[in-house]
Amino acid sequence: MSPKSIAVINFKGGVGKTTVTWSLGNIISQGTDLEVLMLDLDPQMSLTEAIGLNENTGHLDDKFGKWYEKSLKHRLTIYDALEVFKKAGQNFKFPVGFDTIYQIDEQLHFVPSVEELYWLDIDGFDGKSVKDFIRRFIGKIANSANLPKYDLMLFDCSPSFSLLTYSVLSCCDLILIPVNPDYFGSRGLSLVLNSLQKRIEPYPFPKIAVFMNKAKTYGGLLTNEVQFYMREVKRLCDEISKDNNIEVRFLESTIRESVGLKRAINEGELPRELVREFEKLWRECEEYLK
Q1: What digits encode the pLDDT tens for the residues 40-67?
Q2: Which residues neighbour 130 within 8 Å (Cβ) at sequence distance 6 or greater?
Q3: Which stretches does DSSP call E strand in the chain?
Q4: What's the pLDDT score for residue 99?
Q5: What distance in Å separates the CA atoms of residue 288 and residue 290, rounded to the nearest whole number?
Q6: pLDDT, tens only, 81-140
Q7: How far apart are alpha carbons 38 and 109 in whole angstroms?
Q8: Domain extents for the chain?
Q9: Strands 36-40 and 108-111, sheet pairing
Q10: Distance between CA 158 and CA 27 in Å, rounded?
Q11: 3-state secondary structure of 188
């Protein structure tokens, strides 16, 4: 059975895509028996740096650093796979294994980003040559005898609509959109949802889920401002879903603002107060994926 796939996107920077991707991967791999693979497709490499960098030294963690250098040296990164795919087409042959996939722990694995992805859209790649890449790349992973049978793949996508984002959205099961509770967050969501259908067609359109991230609280409760924007975003989701005949669901899960979340990625453990919130978010996503 093919793994389920979730693409975490928003075409606005700073909404928390990276922390959401890692937090879900961490919660699911530690709290269930599911095998999870995270993929960093953002050329800004935020997830790769958060996982690999040692905050005290500012350099790559020793274990990850040695693995990463080896992957780069032997040209076994996801960018190298993309280059092979572009040239080979239907004869795509690339040895996807643990030289491309980093083992964070037993159930949580990771495909890091590389600097070359930054130049992808202006480096001679065209949409037609890239659109099926992620579908084929996932297929290679799923059919490999040397890799686990992953149950879930989480994609941290670029904050702009890149060729790789197009490739992911053309084959993922769920688009997960974190939105910050402010004017620009709700307005940006409208632009994202109205443009996605044009971008993904003619592929089967995936389900879309939207939730509030970085929500401010006061006295343990969501502020009135957050509750206002939650109502506004829910209204937008219902309206766009009806007008465009696509599945857009506003999730009840809300992730509160936390200053310790970025540090948690490097240390490998979520702040206790956020564990239940991400567990609830995953339960809603899991139910929606059925």
Answers
A1: 999 889 899 888 876 555 556 788 999 9
A2: 82, 85, 86, 163, 164, 166, 167
A3: 4-8, 36-40, 102-103, 108-111, 152-156, 174-179, 207-215, 217-218, 221-222, 248-256
A4: 96
A5: 6
A6: 999 998 886 789 999 999 999 999 999 999 999 998 887 765 555 556 688 899 999 999
A7: 6
A8: 4-289
A9: parallel
A10: 22
A11: helix
Instruction: Provide DSSP, 239-271.
Output: HHHHHHT--EEEEEEEEEP-TTHHHHHHHT---
Neighbours of 114 (CB within 10 A): 17
Other CB atoms within a 10 A radius of the CB of residue 191 amount to: 11
Which class does domain 4-289 fall in? alpha beta
Answer for the pair 128, 55: CB distance below 8 angstroms, yes or no.
no
User: In this structure, are strands 152-156 and 4-8 parallel, antiparallel, or unpaired?
Assistant: parallel
Contacts of 85-90 spanning 24+ positions with Cβ under 8 A: 85/130, 85/133, 85/136, 85/137, 86/125, 86/129, 86/130, 86/133
Please state, in angstroms and rounded to a whole number, the distance separating the CA atoms of residues 105 and 30.
10
Range with the largest mean pLDDT of 70-74, 81-85, 193-197: 70-74
Whole-number Å distance between alpha carbons of 64 and 164: 24
177 touches 209 (CB < 8 A): yes
What is the rounded average pLDDT of the residues 257-285? Answer: 81
- Per the CB < 8 A criterion, the answer to whether 142 and 2 are in contact is yes
- Tokens representing 283 are 């339960």
- Going by C-alpha positions, the residue among 49, 28, 51 that lies closest to residue 150 is 28
At 216, list the tokens.
Answer: 């401010």
